[in-house]
Amino acid sequence: MTLRYTVDAVVLDIEGTTSATGFVVDVLYPYARSRFAALLSERSGDPEVARAVAQVREAIGEPEADAVRVEKALNAWLDEDRKATPLKILQGVIWSEGFARGDLVAHFYDDVVPELRAWHSSGVRLYVYSSGSVAAQRSWFTHSPEGDLTSLLSGLYDTENAGPKQEAESYRRIAGSTGIEPAKLLFLSDRPGELDAARTAGWHAVGVRRPGEPYFEQGVGDHAAAGTFDEITVSRSTS
Prior knowledge:
44% of the residues lie in helices and 15% in strands. The chain is an alpha/beta fold. The model has no long low-confidence stretch (mean pLDDT 95).
């Protein structure tokens, strides 16, 4: 069954939605873990790194924590798959450099990029809202197997500039930032809690269910569901 929506914009989750969670967990997480120590020791003066380190110290309640202690906290959060903003910032710094060096190439499911291009060509704006940092998102879409996709995107949102993904207020904040009324926004995600929050904020929400993804068996509750992007038809609102 094809799902049809007339909206002004589509907002995309990444892990489990456009891309395989396994790639993030099996490739990107170990890549960042192996480079935390060097980043903290060699780049502590960089404003973005320093800000994230300060946030780690605040989160663990240790204002004088040294680089070794900060690294230990980051690795513990990684083990828990905690969506901690400073973790995502530092991962983003490392991944951005890895993509730029050619060490990393982002993963996208085969059905995603053709639909993104079609939706963009029809005048529908595209945004990303991921727990990964804006820097990581930009690198991800810049270094896809099909080249730089950032020209398709109108904006990027993460837990720092929008807020937690399972809180409706975050989606209200995004709607305000884009200038698009909630009823003309469509959110695609594999996580039921995120879909619930988007719907509470007045958005359309579709659960993307891909076999092998962590939330596949759980399902998406009472939300509309699609197995691939080509099961979703999106057209531009004319009002």
